């Protein structure tokens, strides 16, 4: 099973952080997601979790199988 995308359909790039305000990924992380290996996707999700913690946001709930 592939690693699910953290996209929650709130797609707006923050001018302060440079991350999507919905999923906290960078433009590069968003655009490479469809080509990324599961290992690379997990690395992105670790970065997303760190960013969400830094911003004081709740962790995203991930499910296997979806991928955008």
TrEMBL record:
Lineage summary: Bacteria, Pseudomonadati, Pseudomonadota, Betaproteobacteria, Rhodocyclales
Protein name (Swiss-Prot/TrEMBL): DUF1289 domain-containing protein
A Pfam match: DUF1289
InterPro entries the UniProt entry points to: DUF1289
